[in-house]
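Support reply, case 0932

Customer input (verbatim):
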Amino acid sequence: MTPQQEGLLHEDAAPHIAKLGLLSEPFAGADDGQHFFYADANREQRLDLMQHLAPYSELLVVIGVPGVGKTTLLQQFVARASETWRMAVVMAQARMSPDEFMAQLMDGFGLSADDGTSLDAQRGVLVAHLRALRQSAQVPILLVDDAQQLDTEVLESLLALCEENDAGHLLSVMLFGSPQLQSNLAAPALAPLQGRVAHTFDIPPHNEQETGRYIRHRMRAAGAQGEGPFNQAVINKIHDASGGIPSVINEMAHHFLAESPVGGAERRRAAAPPRPASGGVDKRWIAVALAGLAVAAVLVAGRFGGEDGGDGGMKTEQSNALTLPPAAESAPESRVLRDEQAVALGEPPPEAVLPEPVFEEAMPESETPAPMPEAPAPVAEAPAQPSPPPAPAAP
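Our regenerated output:
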């Protein structure tokens, strides 16, 4: 771990670094390094094509809006270079003169420019060196970052260097710049340089899904075990506000991470209700239980307290059910009784008389059928008085 990373781990300097267990700042590093590069499908495709075309193309142009990652793509191109490539990187600046441009170019190829040497003499030394590289099966490539800042005079000197390729391919040039670079190359004086462009690459911003992958990738590269405070809602807001530009995403994510009081796991724990200490019971739950028991006791007392009777505290419950009349004897049972009495008195039983059929009228389901009239109770016949015995005859 570098001293700079150890300083970032100090909680006073960056509290979120220590709270999230990060090893470095995920979004504020000026030099991201190889492990922070997010190789999405668009950038991987362009890098592969650039590596394929660069050794054989005279001039390649890479266009992207400010902050989209042109410098990062240039660094990745250098990191993936072949062993036979010899590259010089020039960082263009506003109002850079042709002499300053040539000095950086020669320094990039390991050449020293003597003070007072004319521009033509320096170009001659550079061309001789490039031919020597070609003869040793090496490929010289010039990379210019922020090329939109080069004025017409510097671009004309670059055109003069490219014209050395007419006798054979000597130098490959790659210009990285904003859309303003295309406008500069469209000037009439630079039409010959524009004609040497073999291919133009564009670098698009990230879409919403790529923005989420980009943020999570940088968090993991910094040592995070999870997504931290960057849930999908936060990612959507960052994408909408940044337009998918990586530099703006880094700035917004850094500020959000620095201002976030806790990480994602700690935030969820803070939002959860407090738990009682291990081995104990929360006193608030005890109070709630006692209050519930008291309410239940009051309800029970009100329900049964007023229903006690006067006899020893016991209550005789009154029934609301109606008293039904005793069931009447059915007609067959009554007839059997009369027959048995007649036989006992020596009278012949009367002939059985079949009851007349009773036709019931169909009544609606909603009406309750009227009760059948009760059969009259049988009247027992008085037994016949036996005749008195005859008086005995007189002697």
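We compared this against your earlier run and they match. Two observations from our side: Strands lie at 59-63, 85-91, 139-145, 172-177, 197-202. The CA atoms of residues 163 and 193 lie 9 Å apart. Please reopen the case if you see a mismatch on your end.
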